[in-house]
């Protein structure tokens, strides 16, 4: 009896979680005229690919997608390199000023992001990067959370392993590159997914600095579409579906690492 | 492990991070404090006004509207999300639980949609007439299908809280589940031997066991909720909604700083938000007694 209640509760909540997603998929293939007639999903024979055709006709959707891939890809790679190298230094070396530096960085994590919008705009304006992809990538290079994530994980790499590599003639960077980074593969995976999701969904900062539509990323481009083509719900849903697919694919590739990485800082911290 | 060859290594390794941190982290923080003492018109023109921005802010009815809305959202979402997340995590943590990973994935899946794309989706789900929510409420409970969730002032915040609940409950559950799994099983056995019932076990074993994570999630959720912007802005068609019922603090910052061009005022709003969040976090930490007892 008790089990029945528990599974019913879990089942009910599963339905609440999944229904909007199923509705998104159905709506992406639903003709605009059918939105009024079939609130849930139209019969299978009424499904259409028309929304996708009209999506690509109405807006440079592929362009937006390429822009998003470029910005997210570049940001993740730079963040990964800077954060993992910095995290390694903090985890495996003792040096003057280490404590102070970590304290300062932890303190800045407490400051809400919107505080930085105005000075960052000023800075990017003076660097003449307004309305450019570089203006999105450059302020995103620093990921303090990521660096602490790497530090936390690399603390558990045994010193003997590093020492052995030194005796084998590795220099310090080679130790990082050939020994520490490979054994940290899970955390690298988790970090890439978290960082990619963050950049892929970034809205406020791109909304502030992007002006030309050929530089728009997906969130900005799709949102623009709402105002202009208000009635084309089907196209909007097909665009939304295509926009979330890359994250879903990446999640399935990195699933295991992700859950581990997400909870690492919280549980062990 | 201190070798001569490795003395300069950590500095070199940290250099790229620290350099970009100084330019794009530390400098903007300091510059933001200075900027908040100026009235500006875009990045070129500025005039020193001392603390006037802050004084003006505290007298601006729009700011207080934004504060009320944001606080309503924060209280509503934290109060609904976290008990639900914890409850689900406890159900999934039972030793005889089958299909734990499947449920965990299902509960987490809304998070994969992301904030922006969820907002676009829910704009249609919440639409009157053909929207999924009204259609379901009509089909299941016979409620009218004409409810205008996003254009009725009283319904705007409940609608936003609902979307946030859908989006983040599973995300928080992942934290709670991980925390529950790290609670020592022997403590439960000991409690059972002492004759403790389920409630008593929850209060005396489970809650103390997950306390650090619980506090972490409460504080982070509050901080996150106070920065509400995208969800409101996108759902309300790039605006603040009917009677400004969806105006949030960050939206007020965006409107003044980037539509109005007053970067100084935007910086002052930012620091006011930071101050509020800091005070709230400290109250939460004090109330829960974090840091007083060692683990």
Explain what the structure shows.
The complex is a heterodimer of chains A (269) and B (295). With 269 residues, chain A is an all-alpha fold. Helices cover 74% and strands 0% of the residues of chain A. In chain A, helix 9 packs across helix 10 and helix 13 runs antiparallel to helix 14. Chain B is mainly alpha-helical and 295 residues long. The two termini of chain B are 31 Å apart. In chain B, helix 3 packs across helix 11. Chain B has twelve helices and two strands. In chain B, strands 1-2 form a two-stranded antiparallel sheet. Chains A and B meet through helix 1, helix 4, helix 5, helix 6 and helix 9 of A and helix 1, helix 3, helix 4, helix 5 and helix 6 of B.
The total strand number of chain B stands at 2
Radius of gyration of chain A: 23 Å
Helix/strand structural class of chain B: mainly alpha
**Runs of chain A with pLDDT <50, length 5+?**
none
> Mean of the pLDDT scores of chain B?
91
Q: Unreliable runs of chain B, pLDDT <50, ≥5 residues?
A: none
Structural class assignment of chain A: mainly alpha
Q: Strand fraction band of chain B?
A: under 5%
Number of helical runs of chain A?
A: 14
Structural key phrases:
heterodimer, B: mainly alpha, two-stranded antiparallel sheet, 12 helices, 72% helix, globular
């Amino acid at each position: 009896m008790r089990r029945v209640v528990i599974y019913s509760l879990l089942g009910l909540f599963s339905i609440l979680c999944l229904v909007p997603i199923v509705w998104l998929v159905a709506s992406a293939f639903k003709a605009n005229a059918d939105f009024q007639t079939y609130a849930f999903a139209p019969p299978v024979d009424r499904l259409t690919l028309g929304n996708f055709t009209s999506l690509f006709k109405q807006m440079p959707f592929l362009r937006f997608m390429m822009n998003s891939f470029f910005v997210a890809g570049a940001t993740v790679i730079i963040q990964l390199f800077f954060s993992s190298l910095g995290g390694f230094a903090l985890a495996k070396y003792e040096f003057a000023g280490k404590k102070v530096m970590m304290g300062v960085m932890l303190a800045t994590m407490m400051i809400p992001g919107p505080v930085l919008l105005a000075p960052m705009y000023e800075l990017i304006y003076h660097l003449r990067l307004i309305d450019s992809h570089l203006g999105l990538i450059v302020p995103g290079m620093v990921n303090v959370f990521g660096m602490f994530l790497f530090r936390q994980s690399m603390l558990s790499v045994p010193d003997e392993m590093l020492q052995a590599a030194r005796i084998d003639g590795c220099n310090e960077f080679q130790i990082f590159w050939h020994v520490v980074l490979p054994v940290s593969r899970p955390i690298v995976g988790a970090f890439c997914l978290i960082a990619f999701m963050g950049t892929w969904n970034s809205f406020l900062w791109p909304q502030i600095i992007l002006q030309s539509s050929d530089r728009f990323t997906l969130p900005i481009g799709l949102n623009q579409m709402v105002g202009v083509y208000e009635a084309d719900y089907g196209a909007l849903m097909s665009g939304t579906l295509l926009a979330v697919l890359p994250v879903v694919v990446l999640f399935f590739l990195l699933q295991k690492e992700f859950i581990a990485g997400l909870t690492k800082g919280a549980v062990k911290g | 492990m201190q070798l001569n060859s490795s003395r300069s290594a950590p500095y070199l390794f940290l250099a790229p991070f620290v350099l970009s941190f100084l330019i794009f982290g530390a400098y903007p923080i300091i510059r933001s404090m200075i900027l908040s003492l100026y009235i500006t018109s875009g990045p070129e023109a500025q005039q020193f006004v001392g603390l006037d921005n802050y004084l003006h802010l505290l007298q601006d009815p729009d700011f207080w509207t934004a504060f009320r809305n944001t606080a309503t959202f924060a209280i509503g979402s934290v109060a609904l999300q976290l008990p639900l997340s914890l409850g689900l995590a406890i159900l999934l943590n039972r030793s005889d639980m089958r299909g734990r990973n499947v449920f965990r994935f299902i509960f987490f899946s809304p998070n994969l949609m992301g904030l922006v794309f969820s907002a676009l989706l829910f704009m249609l789900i919440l639409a009157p007439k053909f929207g999924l929510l009204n259609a379901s409420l009509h089909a299941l409970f016979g409620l009218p299908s004409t409810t205008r969730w996003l254009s009725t002032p009283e319904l705007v915040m409940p609608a936003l809280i609902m979307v946030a609940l859908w989006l983040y409950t599973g995300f928080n559950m992942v934290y709670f589940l991980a925390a529950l799994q790290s609670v020592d099983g022997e403590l439960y056995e000991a409690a059972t031997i002492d004759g403790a019932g389920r409630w008593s076990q929850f209060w005396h074993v489970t809650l103390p066991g997950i306390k650090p994570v619980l506090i972490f999630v409460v504080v982070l959720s509050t901080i996150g909720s106070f920065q509400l912007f995208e969800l409101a802005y996108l759902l309300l068609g790039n605006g603040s909604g009917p009677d400004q019922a969806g105006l949030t603090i960050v939206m007020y910052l965006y409107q003044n700083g980037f539509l109005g061009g007053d970067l100084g005022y935007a910086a002052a709003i930012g620091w006011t938000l930071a101050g509020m969040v800091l005070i709230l976090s400290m109250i939460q930490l004090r109330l829960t007694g974090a840091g007083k007892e060692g683990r």
